[in-house]
Amino acid sequence: MDVTFIILSLITVVGAIWAVTLRNLIHGVLSLVLFFFGVAGFFFYLNADFVGWVQILVYVGAVAILAIFAIMLTHNLTAKDEPGFFSLRWLTGMAIAAAVGAVLWFAIKNNAAMLQTAPAGVTSSVADIGRKMMTDWVVPFEVVSLLLTAAMIGAIVIAMEQISHRK
Amino acid sequence: MDENSHILSWLTFTPLIGAIVIALLPKRNESAARGVALFASVLALLEALSLWWRFDGAYAGLQFVEQTPWIAAIRVDYFVGVDGLSILMVLLTALLTPVALLASSPIRKHLRAYYALMLALQTGLFGVFTALNFFHWFIFWEAGLIPMFFIIKLWGGDGTERAALKFFLYTLVGSVALLLVFQAIYLATGTWDFIMLRDLAAGGGLAPKLAAMLQQAGIAITPERAGMLLFFGAFLGFAIKAPVWPFHTWLPDAYTQAPTAGTIMLAGVLSKMGVYGFLRILLPIFPHEIAACATPLSWLAMLTIVLGAFAAIAQLDLKRMIAYASMNHVGYCLLGIVAVAHAAGGASAHADWVNEKACALNGAIFQMFNHGITVAALFMMLGFLEERTGRRGLEDFGGLRAVAPVFAALFGISAMASIGLPGLNGFIGEFMIFKGAWPVITPFAAVSLIGLVATAIYLLNFIQRVFAGPLNERWAKFPDLSRRELLATVPLVALMFFAGVCPAPFINLTNTAAMKLVMLFQPAVQAVSRVTGM
Amino acid sequence: MNPATHIPWIASYLWLIPLLPFAAAGVSALLPQRCRKTSAGLAIGVIVVSTLLSFCALAESILHGLEPHAGRTWSAMQTHEVWHSLIEFTWFNYGTTSLKLGFVLDPLTAAMATMVSLVSALIFIYSLGYMSRDKNFTRFFTFLSLFAGAMLGLVVTNNLLLFFICWELVGLASYLLIGFWYHRPSAAAAAKKAFIVTKIGDTGFFAGLLWLYHATGTLQFYTPDHTGALEQVTALAGLPGIMGLSLAGTIALLIFCGAVGKSGQWPLHVWLPDAMEGPTPVSALIHAATMVAAGVFLVARTYPLFQASPQVLTLVAWIGAFTAIMAATIAVAQNDIKRILAYSTVSQLGYMVMGLGVGGMAAAMFHLLMHGFFKALLFLGAGSVIHGCHNEQDIFKMGGVKKHMPITFWTYFVGTLALAGIFPLAGFWSKDEVLTAAFRWGGGLHKGPFVLGCLGVFLTAFYMWRQVCLVFLGEYRGGKARAGHKHVGQEEAETHHETAPGVPHESPAVMTVPLIILAVFSAFMGFSGLPEHANFIHHFLNPEHAPHVVNWFVIGTASALAFAGLGAGHLLYGVKPLAPDEPDPLKAKLGKLRDFLRDKWYCDELYEATVVRFVRIAAVVVDLGDRLLDGVTVGLGLLARGVSFFNFKFDEQAINCGFDGGCGSVRVIGRCFAALQDGRVQSYLRLVAVTAAILAFWFFLK
Amino acid sequence: MYNFFDQLILTLGAWVVGLVVACGNGVSKFCCGQPLSEAAAHNVAAGTEIVLICVTIYGVFALCFGLATWLERKMLARIQNRYGPNRVGPFGLFQFVADGVKMLTKEDIVPARADKLVHFLAPAVVLAPALLMFAFLPFGRNMAPTNLDTAVIAFFAVGAGSEMALFMAGWGSRNKYSILGAMRAVAQMISYEIPLVLAAVPVVMVVGSLSTSQIVAAQGADGFLDMSRWFVWTPWGFAGFILFLVAATAESNRCPFDLPEGESELVAGFHVEYSGFKFALFFMAEYIGMMAMAGLGVTLFLGGWHGPKLLPSWMWFMGKGFLIVCWLIWLRGTLPRLRVDQLMAFAWKAMLPFALFNIFTTAVWFHLPKATLLQSAVAWLVTAALVAAAYWVVSRFVCRRAGALRVYHYAS
Amino acid sequence: MTTLAHFQLLASMLFAVGLFGAVTRRNAIVVLLSIEIMFNAANLSLVAFWRYGPHPEQLSGVVFAIFGITIAAAEAAVGLALVIVIYRYYKSIEVDKMRSLKG
């Protein structure tokens, strides 16, 4: 455990917790951006530069912005009638999350392979990633690109439908 | 050559993808089906052209091979590849489908189904011409027949019921025969693979195995008879498809009743499936048997040519006339193929004989391609004629050249190509076939020459009655070709000129493969010569 | 310089001669109808260029003979070498070999190319005037160019296949041009007839070609290493063929079939007179001067094959002689100006074929060249007359045209005398050569062709003079009673509608100038073939054979007979000009025989009753057989259908009942699970998470 | 001589690093009695180098920012037939210093109901990506601050961060105008980011690398003139360059795409509630971002620091960058502002399809043979025809309605 | 030193946080964002496995992470578009109020 890891963990965890708990949705989104940067930091830390940059480009540059637009278009700057911390709903949620977390924790703790340290010299050059994607992973790659296209078109169609009906 | 490109699979399944897309189109967008179909077929054409571009004519073996195990239990591989025997057929299919689609404007009902079936048909054809394993070859073979059945039945003319039924029964008989033959072969040898079977047959090992298998089943039979039996089964399948006299009577009805595009595909490509079967299956897998039957086959080829031509002279229905013409021209291909199989000249492995036979085989393959183009153009223009006037009788027209000069010119060029006028494509194929067949089976070739004259008689009669003479006032408003129709016709006509003036690119594609087939054949011919004491 | 290896520059560019007109045809085929001037200009310009190139080739060929000798003297030309300049190229490869094509420059090519291109050029120019009103003017020049290209290609080629290709293209061009006025049923029928009849001959030619190819392994006439098809004749002569002939003879016979078809020899001559349905320049170009000569040229080109087989040569000679006399007799009884010339053409072609058959290849070629000039002249003159007489073609409706059309008359007169063989015009020299060769052929029966030929000379002179008298002399008999002749020249009436019925008029200069030029050629070209030692053309074309000696007997007989013919004609028609509706005096003289001749020996009827009927019946029989076969199939199909119908009924009634019962209970179970679905997304998510956790625990604990 | 000037700055940097290490050695000797260890010396040198690079970039581009504001005012003035700043310094060259002093001394106003934290953070967050973007550009021969093999995508990723900053500024101010401006800015930037990235893709495809250094290296030629292989000379490169310029103009919110801050509509958009030094930071971020975009354009299409060997490489880079900046200023002085729907339609209906087709064209170029001059010429013509066809199709059919009358989708 | 377990534990923690948000919050947008957090946690885990795994040259983790990011982007786009439509329809984006799928 080194300093970088601790700082990044803090950023990430705090960002995530803020993002799910804050009532002010915009603050929530900004915290989420913090979280995203943290995860990107982790990616850099793990020598996965490309993934890190993609993370920033996609999440900060697109997903967060989309979320903001959604918030703005739905006139929901704050979640007003959200129940309190000790409501049944929150406690149930925490219980479930804890249960799942506990399962994962249990699984990780009981696995000796998890204790290994990082091998040296592991890098991910863009060229290698590209080559992999175009050879071994070409089918998933094409499928995902098709999915993305379909999703984009779907999103536009969904959002536009109301307009055409209204006319 | 990039072996990993899977271009053949892409080519084969591009139309199928198009068909699926069309099938998924919403009903209100029916008219988009045409665009999608055209797009898919043009895409397939581009793929085929790229295939052509990358095809190495100097290499005798199979190219772009893809072989992966498919159904391990019965040793079925997905095994495709092209060589000189099939490349022209693939190109022809790719070329004629968009043309047929362009000629589909009279289709008004069930557009989606129609275009999806056309594309499915194309996939079947591509599959037949590229498959090297009987199992999926047969699937594609049937996949070519069933859409055609529906196209004839649903969009055909007045007598479709009868025509479609006849087409289906005939081809079904052929298909069943083929299936049984290959079942037997599989049981005897344990493989569906054309290439392996070829090697086995070349070594003389196929017939004994078949006989052994049949004996196991309690049928006492000599190897020669066993081979012959199976050969006849397979021959029946292909002879019906081609069609060879006397298995041809489905042809005039089917060609006449099918919608224009269907006729184009039927005459242009589907009939080539049968001839292609001779090249891909009968010649390599049954060399001894076909050599032994060469003389009867020569008779059949000759009769196909001569009787087809004479029957065409008698027709008063233009479509029937061209249908018989088509049969007549397929006969030339058979003549070339039979010449290869014939024992004459086989006694000595004299290089000239090999060259003569190679010439005949090249000619037969090229003639398949040429005939596909020419007959497609003829049927398409007949379709235009019928679309404009609703008639297709020989006596219903007259003097159309005055009102539709371009139409007349293009039809005239196509007819001349069919007659075998030098400078157009038909001549090259016929010349090469006759050149090769003449020394081998002189009497048959000589009689078949009558076919050339008869072709001139009926086609010129056609032109005289329809395009020349005083203008039939009824058709004074007959429109000349539209831009769409020109788009469909002119490339074919241009190709006729190109193939006629400059055949070398085409023949270079097929030559090494043809040589290989002929060489493969030479020992078989010798064996028969020894047996029969020739 | 070694003449064997040296390739003159014109030989390297020989391919341009046919290619240029082909290219012009291709271009003008794509031109719209309104580009009349472009099309015509292109065609004429190109044919003129081709003509110039042909002259270059001719000059080169003539000089070639001079080169080895020091002095460029006339006698130095009498070289005894045969020489060819060859260009080869590969068309395509098959098997382990390749199909080679090529071009050859030799005297035969040069002479023929010059004649063809020169006559073509003149006819092209003539057409400019003759066809000026036709609405398909552009197409006309397209077809003409196509024809010229094919014809010249045939002349310059060194390969029998390429020869055949051009031969067929010539046939196509002829088909298109005969059927040029396609909405005239007779024209369309004539075009079809021409194509099919020649195609029959061509099939034989094709068979001969295939056989030759197999036997010699090449189709090149000559090759640089002397292994060409014509250079292996000796070997072929030793091999057996069919019908007791040697292989060379068989092939020669088959090839001769082609020549018979294309050159209108009996029995395939029937298409040629019908072909006069085409416009007159076409008749002149194709059916008089050039195309029909292609058959003769073919035989001349493949002459070594024929020489190897005396039987075939005999056949050739007799067919030629018979054709010559038969056509001449028919010509005597015709009324249509063009038909007379057509039969005259058939007859003259018979002379040429006879000349070939009797071994006078050079003589036949000489006659061919001369005939090309004067027959083109005659046809063009006839066209001019038709044009001037308001599209009248019946010579009994003409008369006295001389004073209205002086240029046409004088040129026509020259042509007539040349054709009749009057000293010193071209026809005299060439016909004399042919007859001398026939005379020298042998004794006994072998004198037959010579006798028939002499008879033909008389008839030729007779019918030509009959024509001249009826058309040009006397008084004009036309101008009225035209209704009955509407069918003849109807198209010309349409195209020249501006000319009102009335007196004939002279044609424009664009038509008369070519006439004059041709007349000059017809008059003087004959001197190139003077007998005796200075027989230039003979040495030029066929240097291997001994030169002629003058045979005064033949000259005397032929001239006498020719003058007799002229005299007989003049007696019948010239002395007392005919009145407008007076019948042909020949009717009275010949009676039934005249009807027989007028109806062309009933050849067409004979063919109609035999060949055509046979084809029709065969076609019907084959068709009926097909339908029978078809009926059997359909019956089987219906049977199968019936069986399947019963099967279907059985399935429906017996098997299908049981399944419907067992499907009810499934619904009940479905209700139970429906309760879990409360519609809230997060409930589902909770359920999923809890279940996943439980499952995972269970998994790890197990 | 040329090399000396070319590497002048590097030499100076090396000299400073050496000096610092020497000093460090001296200090260390003074404190611990022994010179720095090998590793420590290395660390010191590396640290110094980083600091030097940062300082150089900050300094140079702060200066450039000043120059650019002066240039803009001067050029706009010329376009509008005025003199422009001409009081402070020669030709008014020091005007920006005066402006800076003025900004620093102004009062910093925070609206009462503003989201204080976000309002405070926004200017800093805005400036950071703009400066960070320079980390990925090679300024001259051997003068790349970083040498990532993901540089291009990193550049865009960092650039994407500024959108969030603009939104923070707009939202934190609690002002209708500013939130509208911010939403506009964000929508516009996210829309134009796609053509921007797609315009760069062809270059990446052809070079086969995302590394800016390699992209620049791929455009270098050996000769004296050294500009034959700039991608802008190829048809796809030219088309890509134009696309890139347009998208970059929009991306940096410059006229005619300056709707987010349109004075006539939104007063000043997202920074309406900022004043004093915070405003200066926004101003600076805009200009530095613009220069970074220009730098990327130079790197991708104009051969980076390559140029005729008359001037040092870094001067070429700066010169070309300023040329693009001048072009942007010229554009601002010439073109009127677009309407929002036109803006969006242009991005999605014109630029996107054109950029996609340009990628296709590049693929065609890539696969055409270019061994001989003739083949190259053919390839050039073919791709040029493709580009022209794409332009024709896009302009004729796809964005035909881009200039149509406004349709109010959400406001009816 | 940082071990693989550290990363996995962190990732599982983030996943739990995301899950908590997804099952707890009523606002559909926040639910979606929570799902994004879960995606990120998964990606982090994948990349960590790649970094520590026996075959880093295979790059499987990285490629998977990129696919994950892509799918997450698609999910966000469609999800948020749905949210907008739902808002137009129900005038609310409370997930509890959407229950017309009740079986």
Radius of gyration of chain E: 17 Å
Largest contact between protein chains?
A-E, 87 and 70 residues
How many individual domains of chain E? 1
Shape assignment of chain E: elongated
Name the helicity range of chain E. Answer: over 70%
Termini Cα gap of chain E: 53 Å
Task: Determine the strand fraction of chain E and express it as a percent band.
Answer: under 5%
How many strands, what sense, and barrel or not for the largest sheet of chain C?
Answer: 2 strands, antiparallel
Instruction: Kindly identify the CATH topology of chain E.
Output: Helix Hairpins
Q: Radius of gyration of chain C, rounded? A: 35 Å
Number of helices of chain E: 3
Largest sheet of chain E: none
Cα separation of the termini of chain C: 105 Å
Placed side by side, the strands forming the largest sheet of chain C appear as: 1-2
Q: Uncertain regions of chain C: pLDDT < 50 for 5+ in a row?
A: 69-78, 481-500, 660-664
Strand residue percentage of chain C? under 5%
Structural class of chain C: mainly alpha
Write up what this structure looks like.
The complex is a heteropentamer of chains A (167), B (534), C (702), D (412) and E (103). Chain A has 167 residues and is mainly α. Chain A has three domains: 1-82, Up-down Bundle (Four Helix Bundle (Hemerythrin (Met), subunit A)), CATH 1.20.120.1200; 83-116; 124-167. Chain A is built from six helices and no strands. In chain A, helix 1 runs antiparallel to helix 2 and helix 2 (25-45) runs antiparallel to helix 3 (49-73). By secondary structure, chain B is mostly helical. Chain B has a domain at 293-534. Chain B has helices spanning 7-24, 32-54, 84-102, 111-130, 134-155, 160-189, 194-202, 206-216, 223-241, 250-257, 260-285, 287-292, 294-314, 318-341, 351-389, 400-403, 405-419, 425-440, 442-466, 483-501, 504-532; strands at residues 63-71, 76-82. A two-stranded antiparallel sheet of chain B has the order 1-2. In chain B, a hairpin with a 4-residue loop joins strand 1 (63-71) and strand 2 (76-82). The radius of gyration of chain B is 22 Å and the shape is globular. Chain C has helices spanning 9-12, 16-30, 36-66, 107-130, 137-156, 160-178, 185-216, 233-237, 247-262, 271-274, 280-289, 291-301, 303-307, 310-332, 337-357, 361-388, 401-404, 406-420, 426-439, 448-472, 490-495, 509-524, 536-541, 552-574, 585-590, 592-598, 603-655, 666-674, 681-701; strands at residues 85-94, 97-105. Chain C is built from 29 helices and two strands. In chain C, strand 1 (85-94) and strand 2 form a beta hairpin. Chain D has 412 residues and is mostly helical. In chain D, helix 5 (116-132) packs antiparallel against helix 6 (151-172) and helix 13 (340-367) runs antiparallel to helix 14 (373-398). The radius of gyration of chain D is 23 Å and the shape is globular. The chains are: A mainly alpha (167), B mainly alpha (534), C mainly alpha (702), D mainly alpha (412), E mainly alpha (103). At the A-E interface, helix 1, helix 2, helix 3, helix 4 and helix 5 of A face helix 1, helix 2 and helix 3 of E.
